[in-house]
Amino acid sequence: SGVGSGFILTSDGYIATNQHVASDDVSALKVSLADGNTYDAKLVWSDATLDMAIIKIDAKDLPVLELGDSDNVVVGELAVAVGNPMGLNFERTVTAGIISALNRSIPLENGLAEDLIQTDASINSGNSGGPLVNKNGEVIGINTYKLTTGEGMGFAIPINILKPILNEIVATGKFDSTVMGITAYDRAIADYYLTDSDVNFNEGIYIASVQQGGGAANAGLAAGDIIKEINGVKTNTMLKMKEILYAVNAGDKVSVTFERNGQSQTKDVVVTAGQ
After folding, report:
1. Residue 72 has pLDDT above 80, yes or no
2. pTM of structure
3. Which residue among 21, 65, 166, 265 sits deepest, i.e. has the most Cβ atoms within 10 Å of its Cβ?
């Protein structure tokens, strides 16, 4: 059986980890806490593209880590990683370093992981799912990857993407994603997957196609448009777009500023429930 890491989100037992940690055998998930108690856990939500999961144990009055703001992370600040490197023989290991870079993209076997926080705090096999915290002890990322071809190159998923998901799960017991009905990619994904020289954009989200009857199509967006902002927030990565959309409910409107033929336009788009 595999071993990974996680951290407690709520006092009644919601825990964050990586999707690849929680998905091996969901019928046999177990959580061992620092007090020595072990619990059966159930998978509440997971997303393979984000490599994130939330699991639940039946417990009360648990100590909780405070979530920070990953949008405020700066290169050079202190970063501390906590987890179980190399399995339970080294459980709850703490390593320290700095934030080495932001908005990193790295190729994986099944695609591209992007918008990651890079750190030189030691991250090894078994650290996946553990917290990356700042000098105040606030979680700023979920430790996820390490480049095996070099030393001191670990990567974490920014914590802000998890916040709207957690809020809805705590309120309703589940999470339903929201979408605008587009197929799109950002600059990093375009560089990784595409060879089409006609796709020429530097920043924003390029719309490759719109779903007929979807929110974007109904609002007048079209293939070739480049999204610049959603709800007034600069949107240069797919992760940032998901973070914004996940914070609203199906049926809500979002204000989308986009560029078409060099001209800026703004439309209200009604989001719908994702699949």
Report:
1. yes
2. 0.86
3. 21
CATH number for the domain spanning 116: value is 2.40.10.10
In-domain check, residue 125: yes
Task: For residues 53 and 22, state if they share a domain.
Answer: yes
Residue 208 domain boundaries: 178-273
Structure tokens at 158: 């920014």
Q: What is the greatest pairwise CA distance in the chain?
A: 61
Residue pair 154/120 in contact (Cβ under 8 Å)? The answer is yes
Higher-confidence residue: 120 or 191?
Answer: 120
Please compute the mean of the pLDDT values over residues 137-158 and round it to a whole number.
88
Confidence (pLDDT) at 126: 85
CATH code for the domain of 237: 2.30.42.10
